[in-house]
Amino acid sequence: MNPALLVLEDGRVFRGAAYGAEGETFGEMVFNTGMTGYQETLTDPSYARQIVAMTSPHIGNTGVNDEDPESRRIQVAGYVVREPARVASNWRATGSLGSALRDQGVVGIAIPGTRALTRHLRDRGAMRAGIFSGAAAAAGEDALLERVRGSAPMEGADLARDVSTAEPYVVPAIGEKRFTVAAVDLGIKSMTPRRMAERGCEVHVLPATATAADILAVDPDGVFFSNGPGDPSAAGYAVDALRGVLDAGRPFFGICFGNQIFGRALGLGTYKLRFGHRGINQPVQDRTTGKVDVSAHNHGFAVDAPADGPFDTPYGRAEVTHVNLNDGCVEGLRLLDRPAFSVQYHPEAAAGPHDASGLFDRFCEMMEGSR
Ligand SMILES: NC(=O)CC[C@H](N)C(=O)O
């Protein structure tokens, strides 16, 4: 095992062994608490420019397969684990995680102290970091720290257009076609159009920079804005497009980044959480039903909205529909007089529990009711 270093922006250094590709990488240091689903996590485009640490201590046991990826490649900027599996064993496995990381040039590190790292991030907040191995690790710690401090921050980062599809494509409805959906790909996970297709939606996936005119040209029954990486305050183009969609009165559903863009389109602000929510067991209460979903999360930003009742927006009254029971943060929004809603978490559940899959039915009912 070759030595590697994980250097945090505040000067804390973790030493360990190189895992995956050797070299150097920079990104925002975050942690994910999921005990399963590492392949979905690694391929979720929302993790672009983030170094992800897994709190689950043993990673790679089931190798990698061709069915679980949420996009065409591993998207994380770097990967931190405690103990990589020495053997990949699963009937679906086509290879090991270590070789997949290596083949795709993803620099990782195995450190004994993923628990100490997580506690550090919970206390101090997500921060920039770098992983260095091979020749890159030869420079002194001070020089490496200097380079981490010179790397790009997540605040203000416009990354959705980098990970989005270059060309539109169509995901056909499974079974009888009931609806046409225009889905703006801000970093979309492949499970999301599939969940809609399973409900009879023909999903027209459009690039992140699609304008309202591009979206309406599909003549959709409903419009969807996806999850995605980066700071929502840097994606003004998506906010403008969504405003055009709302002006046209088309039904709208948004997930995660899509929820943040919806909030901004309604005139609300977004802000950075201290260390975010990344995992598959976050309790979220739907205030419209009182029901609590155990849900999949991956967000570092949140919408700032009045949670104590309906409030006015340029599109009429709106309300906070969902709250996180761990920290009270806003997890869902809706307009009261127009067919538009969004959630900050992940009903497509890849990976994660399926508690919230009914939100896709809610979108379909909304499209049905708006005909
Ligand atoms: N999964 C997402 O869509 C993440 C949204 C945004 N990049 C955040 O970190 O909050």
TrEMBL record:
Pathway: Pyrimidine metabolism; UMP biosynthesis via de novo pathway; (S)-dihydroorotate from bicarbonate: step 1/3; Amino-acid biosynthesis; L-arginine biosynthesis; carbamoyl phosphate from bicarbonate: step 1/1
Active-site residues, record numbering mapped to chain: 256 (nucleophile), 346, 348
Gene3D superfamilies in the cross-refs: 3.40.50.880, Carbamoyl-phosphate synthase small subunit, N-terminal domain
Reactions that this protein is recorded to catalyse: hydrogencarbonate + L-glutamine + 2 ATP + H2O = carbamoyl phosphate + L-glutamate + 2 ADP + phosphate + 2 H(+); L-glutamine + H2O = L-glutamate + NH4(+)
Tree of life domain: Bacteria
Domain (Carbamoyl-phosphate synthase small subunit N-terminal) ranges: 2-132
Entry keywords, A to Z: Amino-acid biosynthesis, Arginine biosynthesis, ATP-binding, Glutamine amidotransferase, Ligase, Nucleotide-binding, Pyrimidine biosynthesis
Classification via HAMAP family: CPSase_S_chain (MF_01209)
Similarity remark: Belongs to the CarA family.
Protein name: Carbamoyl phosphate synthase small chain
Higher taxonomy: Bacteria, Bacillati, Actinomycetota, Actinomycetes, Streptosporangiales
